[in-house]
Amino acid sequence: MAEMIQVAIDGKQTEVPAGTYVLKAARQVGVEIPALCDSELVEPYGACRVCSVEVSDGRKQRIVTACNYPILKPTEVFTRSERALAIRRLTLEMMLARWPNVEVLKEAAADVGITAARFAHPERNEAANACILCGLCVRVCHEAVWHKVLAFENRGATRRVVMPYGQQAETCVSCESCATVCPTGAITFVDDPNHPADPARIRRAGAELTREVVLLDKSQCRMREVGTAHLVEIMNDYDLLPTHNHRFGRHPDAHRIASDKWTAGFTQGAADGCALGCEMACAKGVDGFVLRTGPDRGKKVLVDGPEYETAAGVGSNLGIFEPWAVIEQNYYCDQYGIDTISWGALMAFVMECYEAGILNQERTGGLDLSFGQAQNVLEVMHQMARGEGFGLVAGQGVRRMKKLFAEQYGADPAFLQDIGMENKGLEYSMYVSKESLAQQGGYALTNKGPQHDEAWLIFMDMVNKQIPTFEDKAEALHYFPIFRTWFGLHGLCKLPWNDVEPEDNAESEAPAKVPKHVQGYCNLVAGMTGKEVSPEDLILQSERVYNLQRIFNLKMGFGTRPHDKPPYRSVGPVTAAEYLSRQERYDQQLKDEIGLDPTTMSLDEKRAAVREYREDRYQQLCDAVYKRRGWTTDGIPTLAKVRSLGIDEVPGLVDLLQAHGVTE
Amino acid sequence: MALTVNGDPHPWREGLTIEELLREKTFTFPLKVIHVNEKLVRKADWGAIVLHDGDVVQVVHLVSGG
Q1: 8 Å CB contact between A203 and A182
Q2: How do the pLDDT tens digits run along chain B, 66 residues long?
Q3: Which of A303, A421, A622, B27 is a plausible cystine mate for B22, CB 3.0–4.6 Å?
Q4: Which residues of A touch B62 (CB under 8 A)?
Q5: What is the ipTM of this complex?
Q6: Is A601 helix (H, G, I), strand (E, B) or coil?
Q7: How many angstroms separate the CA atoms of A330 and A570, rounded?
Q8: How many Å apart are CA A397 and CA A390, to the nearest integer?
């Protein structure tokens, strides 16, 4: 914790952490100092000199700029001393000589008794919205947006703000941050392209989010610093980081692929362009990475910094804890057009099958595919891209490999079903859900398959224990998947919703929903369309689509109860080794929740009892969720539900439901 | 002598602060809301607030990920 320093500002005593700037300390005690180039979004700059004050801190009493003068020892500050005012007057007079009609200048000058300049300026500009070269736009573009589209050109009287070479920069995406901070209106908005109904409302919502991201993220999720990879060490702490095909949730080597290993490789200091102009800028780039394998071997490349799902999927879930191998897989997944999550899950399945003896080197073309064999994992990926060797097998994904290994190699289909991390044909994303019943549903009760985008309920359920009953879990499995679907409807990223939170979110009525941000989305919709919407309206918009998706699944042969069944690996311990690794937990559950005495049971009996209990609870969860969503016990939307949502007139929809036995 | 933390018992000791409790529980996720005996405790006070024997602590981890 920083040392606290005594400071007196115009006689008002206070105490501030060492290093606090005078301007900030003054505001804390209610002393206003005019400052034209200051913004909380950027580092202080000392450009305008209008905030000049006189300080005494043991050395010679002198004039400093309040915005960037740090208080490091007991200090007296005089904001309106004769010397300070004289400097401020002269500064403002010179500025007025050049920009006589700019309102913020006139106001600051009037505060010190100046109404007109005594001097003539060769570059006099009479415009009321003249640029006063405060540099806020340039600094916001560099420091907050990380885009560096704007810059200064020339020096002295001919200095001006430009895009490089005076041309419209292709990388400028009109995020409008520069215009938002401009104190004079020199940079104006162009609202025409999308014809929003109320552009100012959209801008206010955007500016508020920018403020939160820039100011708060560094003490929250560090998305700007490391992106979602900050979750690697956190998930390991909570026993949720999948290792060795989701068998375990923690590994002693996880620190080797933790976020500090990735930040060490991020040299760009900029967003990688996921969404130009997004201040959250969570997508990162690893620079100067030299490839070790494949067609680009030896080349020095820029690779996407691994997201959490990638680091876990192609790292810990494959027993690989070597950062180079994670980055290399990420590079080639991008090059080949392979999803890193599906890749990680299907290779983990292959590796468990290899270790279980279902696969061997004869079947893999001579490759040892034990967990941790990074070079051979990459070889399979290259074979897959070339469409040859064992890559042809792996490339079919978990669902088809289960069938193939049973048919061709005589493997036990039940075991393959248990360990094959897929549902509805899609591979699982990278969280261990065994101890969270709600998350088991969050994965397998999805429309798209077990990705992490619909519902992430592990903390609410497993850690907070906020949703203990089936009905509580069902309510969460109604709201969160439906609300998250809303982002897809509007082409918005969901990360700014809950990966940064307002300062006062803890005091809101439902912090997990981040109500202030939900209202912000209502403002965006209303600002764009001119139609007022409530948070409930957003849910209704989304619920219509969610139900249509479910019915589309039904049409394609997926949207019923059997398709919502997860692999047992997602629900509980498949193997004896898994049970034994968390024996205390499972034995306790046998005793407390099932009413059995584990001391009198064999390991196989205990595993069977835990399995029966957990699988039964999952089915009870399905019952509760279907009921909450207005679906039949087979998981099909009822006629009453589709009518209440107003989607019953979609051609063929009612006929389809009736053909599947839906009568009410 | 114990606290109740998210419904489970947790050993209490003299002088235990919220910040120390979070370390003991390995609650490292950054977005949390904490209530002690149903009263909200602001993040700035986690290092200073000392817990008492029998306190009921709710550490709500917010939804994130993604």
Answers
A1: no
A2: 899 999 999 999 999 999 999 999 999 999 899 999 999 999 999 999 999 999 999 999 987 665
A3: B27
A4: 459, 498, 501, 505, 511-512, 514
A5: 0.94
A6: coil
A7: 25
A8: 12
Calculate how close chain A gets to B23, using CA atoms only, in Å: 11
DSSP H stretches of helix in A146-185: 177-181
Q: Is pTM, for the whole model, over 0.80?
A: yes
Written as six digits, the tokens of B34 are: 């904490």
Q: Which positions ≥6 away from A635 have C-beta within 8 Å?
A: A550, A559, A560, A561, A563, A564, A622, A626
Find chain B residues with C-beta within 8 A of A456's C-beta: 63-66
Is B62 in Cβ contact with A514 (below 8 Å)?
yes
Alpha carbon distance A304, A308 (integer Å)? 12
- In a 10 Å sphere around its CB, with 0-12 CB exposed, 13-18 middle and 19+ buried, how is residue A146 labelled? middle
Question: What is the CATH code of the structural domain delimited by A227-427?
Answer: 1.10.569.10
Pick the CATH number of A437-659 from 1.10.357.10, 1.25.40.390, 1.10.599.10, 3.30.450.40: 1.10.599.10
Helix (H, G, I), strand (E, B) or coil at B20: helix
Contact A207, A178 (CB under 8 A): no
- Cβ partners under 8 Å of residue A598, min gap 6: A587, A590, A591, A606
Amino acid at B29: F
Q: How far apart are CA A654 and CA A541, in angstroms?
A: 20
Query: What integer pLDDT is reported at residue A168 of this predicted model?
Result: 80
Radius of gyration for chain A, computed over Cα atoms and rounded to the nearest angstrom: 30
B44 to chain A: nearest residue by CA?
A: A503
Cβ of A431 within 8 Å of Cβ of B31? The answer is no
The ranges assigned to domains in chain A are 4-94, 227-427, 437-659
User: How confident is the model over A99-127, as pLDDT tens digits?
Assistant: 999 999 999 999 999 999 998 998 999 99
Q: Which tokens sit at A336?
A: 């080949």
Chain B residues whose beta carbon lies within 8 Å of the beta carbon of residue A507: 40
Domains of chain B: 2-61 (3.10.20.30)
Q: What is the pLDDT of residue A349?
A: 98
Q: φ, ψ for residue A160 (rounded to 5)?
A: -160, 165
H/E segment holding residue A384: helix A374-386
Report the C-alpha gap between A292 and A268 in whole angstroms: 22
Give the pLDDT score at A269: 60
Beta strands at A75-78 and A285-290: parallel, antiparallel or unpaired: unpaired
Amino acid A291: pLDDT: 98
The reported pLDDT for the residue numbered A287 is 86
pLDDT band per the 50, 70, 90 thresholds, residue A2? confident
Residues of A in contact with B27 (CB under 8 A): 463
Q: What is the share, in percent, of chain A residues with pLDDT greater than 90? A: 81
Q: How many CB atoms lie within 10 A of CB A536?
A: 9
Model pLDDT, residue A81? 95
Beta strands A151-153; A285-290: pairing state: unpaired
Cα angle A94-A100-A104, degrees, rounded to a multiple of 5: 90
CATH domain A4-94 topology:
Ubiquitin-like (UB roll) (3.10.20)
Alpha helices in chain B (DSSP H): 18-24
